[in-house]
Every structure is written in structure tokens, then in C-alpha cells.
What does this fold into?
Amino acid sequence: MSTSILSAEDAADIAELLREAVLLPHDGSKLQTKNGIIWVTCSDGDKILDFLEHVLNIIREGNGRLRPHIFTEHGGAMVIAEDFPLYPLFRVAELMLAKIEDGHIMKNMDTVILMIHAPCSAAEKAHLNVIQELAYLIRGKRRIQEGMPNLDVACFIHVQDAEGNKVVHYVSSFAFEAWYKKRLERTPALKPTHAETHEHS
Ligand SMILES: [Zn+2]
It folds into this structure.
């Protein structure tokens, strides 16, 4: 699949989310990173090194330990949401949750960084815009918190704009949930139906 370019619609939504303080500058000093972090990210071979650089910078901001325990999947942290539409024949979410729990136990790491990115080929394959990506991301976070309330979970999105500029934003979960509720009232069609992607399930 070709490397896609951020759509004008996604760029406009990201600008709105920045104005609404749903997306914020990252500040690694607010994260507990002294013992490293568990990191869930998209596999994207064109971008993974840039993702890693940003994550290492976030750890550096908090004088943490550069010890990223990495789990990759197409779509990154979106796969943890129970209804993520890719690979419906496989229990990707359950596997990821089990790996996070084992990483926490085996490596004594209490902080999980969940990352998605835009544009993302996996999101494109699943016909998701950036708002839907964020909705899966936050639902994934809530799922981890339900099962493993002792973990700190922080969400981030890596954005590459049409000019090629790359930036990582922190995603405020509560701010997103409040904003998304209002946005769904405005645009009910945003709610994914999965009609096309569940044909094999
Ligand atoms: Zn991706």
C-alpha cells in the first residue's frame, strides 16, 4: 500500500482538536518513566524510527530510563479496542492485552504509552478517519484501565502533515470523550459501522 498523505479533512479536524485542547504538547515529566515504558505503536516501516525518536524524547523530558518495551501492530494502539475492524478472525486485542500484562510483570514497568498516527495505512485499509482513529485509541486505553487499573496509560498521536512536518501530540482522554460526544451529535455518520470490514467474520 502506498504511503498516504494526510487528507484536508483530517488536517482540519486535527486543527480543531488542537484549538479545543484535546491534543496538547507532550510533557514527559508528567509520566513515570524511571523504569522504562511499555509502548504500543503502529508497525509502519517508513515511520517507526521517527516514532521511536519522539518516544525517546518524551522519556528524556522526564529524565526517565530509555528502555522502550515495544509492541507493534498495524494500526498501533487502535487494535486494543474490542471492535477494531481489522483482522476480525484473530483475537489481536486479547493478545495485546496479555502482552501488556506480561510486560508489566516481567519488566516491572507501570507506564504504557499508546500511540496511533495519521496518515496510517492500516486506518486507510479500515476506512477510518483521524477522529475514528482517536476514538479507537481512547477506547483501547479505557479497556486497559478496566483490566489493569494499576497501570498508568498515556495516549499520543503522531501526525505527518501534507508538507511532511512531523509532530507528536498528547491526547487528553477526558477532553476527547467530551468533544467526541458533541461531534457525534453533529456528525452521526462518524460512528464506524464496520459493514465493509467485517465481511469475513
Ligand atoms: Zn500505521
Observations:
- The helical segments are 8-19, 48-61, 92-107, 121-125, 130-147, 173-186.
- Strands lie at 23-25, 37-42, 68-73, 111-118, 152-160, 166-171.
- The chain has one domain: 10-23+33-186.
